[in-house]
Amino acid sequence: MLEKVLAAPVHDLPYANLRGCRLLVIGATGFIGRHVLESLYAIERKHSLGIRVVCTVRDERRARAMFARFDRTLALEYVNWHLLGGGLAVAGTIDALFHLAAVTNSAAMVEQPASLAREALIGAFSVFDLAADKKARVIYASSMEAYGAVNDTNPRKENELGHIDLTKPRSAYPETKRMIENILSCYEAQFDMPFAVVRLGQTFGPGASLSDHRAIYSFVRQAAAGLPITLATSGASRTNLLYVSDAVDAMIRCLVNGDRSGTYNVSDPSGSMSVLELAHLIDGTLKGNGVQVKVDPRVNAKYAAETRLVMETSRIQAIGWRPRTSIVEGIQRTARDLHGRALEAGLEW
């Protein structure tokens, strides 16, 4: 079952700003989207604000089953649509929307980069056209990858970007993230559309796909199974970890308490570490069987360019955000969730 990430919502937020709001969630059945729905459900249950939610989904039957317990509380509505589905049409008012849909499959970033870029950019224009027409505020889930490669560990503010090698097909993912951030600024300038770019660190936690093979999930599976954690790279690249409920808290804060428009870095300062350090942390937390480094140059092409990025988070902290789940606790919760769902699905662990 999806973790109840905000069963007791933070008390310092002006939730009254959401009273009577009709919200649109793009990519509702994705990893972060499901946690956003969980959060809105908890807020509505606690504060009775009359929040209503419209979800874009690819499979309405699956979505209805997934969100059955939210249905009446959030007056859920569904729109069958995907990023290449053409113009996005939603009847009635929309006060704000969360744009959470994205291609995050590592293999697709290398094997289908043109398709990834097309889907991301065409989808963004469709979403933002609707937002501009509805006079809706946009909350966009961007990524730390928008920074590109950074060659030092000085904490980087939102405007202190690194280098993206435009000759590398793998760069399609970070470059489209960066481009969409700029498109939002263009829409604000031309259509007076307010927005918040929430530039997330590597977001992890319960509810991730069992087929998600990003490093943190692969490491958790290996350690929890008592196997050595195996790295296909040197592990020198840095990551900036962020537990999923803390990511959602940041997005809700930006919606109800943020500046009219702007970009916010969001990561847990204690989660800034090299991939090798992450492997050792997971191994120690889950009592695994050690860490092995087996560098494979063929595998390296699937990963983002090596970076030493440390995200500076004073702007999101200025509106009251703090990480509330430690990285170690997040790893433990993630391991329990993956293990439980793997057993339910009859998969080897």
Provide the fold topology.
Blueprint: E1 22-26, H1 31-47, E2 52-57, H2 60-66, H3 71-74, E3 77-80, E4 96-99, H4 106-111, H5 113-134, E5 137-143, H6 172-191, E6 195-200, E7 202-204, H7 215-224, E8 229-231, E9 238-243, H8 244-257, E10 261-266, E11 272-274, H9 275-285, E12 291-293, H10 297-300, H11 314-317, H12 327-344
Parallel strand pairs: 1-2, 1-4, 2-3, 4-5, 5-6, 6-10, 7-9, 8-12
Antiparallel strand pairs: 9-11
Helix pairs in contact: 1-8, 5-6, 7-9, 7-12
Question: How many domain units?
Answer: 1
Which strand order spans the largest sheet, edge to edge or round the barrel? Answer: 3-2-1-4-5-6-10
- Helix fraction, binned, reads 25-40%
Proportion of residues in β-strands? 15-25%
User: Do you know the CATH architecture?
Assistant: 3-Layer(aba) Sandwich
Q: Given this structure, which CATH class is correct?
A: Alpha Beta
CATH superfamily descriptor:
NAD(P)-binding Rossmann-like Domain
Would you tell me the overall average pLDDT? Answer: 94
Q: Helix segment count?
A: 12
Q: Tell me the number of strands.
A: 12
Do you know the CATH topology?
Answer: Rossmann fold
- H/E element order: EHEHHEEHHEHEEHEEHEEHEHHH
Uncertain residue ranges: 1-8
Instruction: Please give the alpha-carbon distance between the first and last residues.
Output: 18 Å
Radius of gyration: 19 Å
Structural class: alpha/beta
Largest beta-sheet details: 7 strands, parallel
